[in-house]
């Protein structure tokens, strides 16, 4: 009565996981994701220097929104 079909078949689970990770399309998207992640760092630094006040206001607004919405959600 297990809820997972592979509870007793760890080897099969491991093999299917390796098949997914070794799939070429998965690898290509991992490389693209890594390149975009690394390329976003200089872009974020540029925006931070250029628009520091806007970013600060966005974080401040988000913090206020969280401070107001969190107690409301917890009360319900």
Task: Describe the structure concisely for a colleague.
Keywords: Membrane, Transmembrane, Transmembrane helix. This protein is an all-alpha fold and 76 residues long. It has helices spanning 10-22, 24-50, 52-75.
How many beta-strand elements? Answer: 0
Count the DSSP helices.
3
* Protein structure class: mainly alpha
Cα(first) to Cα(last) distance is 36 Å
Q: Please state the CA-atom Rg, rounded to the nearest Å.
A: 22 Å
Unreliable residue stretches:
none
Number of domains: 1
**Helical amount:** over 70%
Whole-number mean pLDDT: 75
What string, H for helix and E for strand, traces the elements in order?
HHH
The major β-sheet equals: none
Apparent shape: flat
* Strand residue percentage: under 5%
Q: Kindly report the oligomeric state of this protein.
A: single chain
Structure commentary:
The protein has 76 residues and is mainly α. The protein contains three helices and no strands. The longest helix has 27 residues, at 24-50. The protein is flat, with a radius of gyration of 22 Å. It starts with 9 loop residues before the first helix and ends with a helix. The relative contact order is 0.05.
Label this structure with key terms.
76 residues; mainly alpha; transmembrane; membrane; single chain; flat; transmembrane helix; 3 helices; 84% helix
């Amino acid at each position: 009565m297990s809820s997972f079909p592979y509870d007793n078949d760890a080897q099969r689970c491991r093999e299917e996981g390796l098949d997914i990770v070794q799939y070429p399309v998965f690898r290509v998207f991992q490389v693209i994701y890594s390149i975009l992640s690394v390329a976003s760092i200089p872009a974020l630094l540029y925006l931070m220097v250029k628009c520091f006040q806007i970013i600060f206001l966005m974080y401040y607004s988000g913090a206020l929104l969280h401070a107001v919405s969190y107690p409301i959600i917890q009360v319900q």
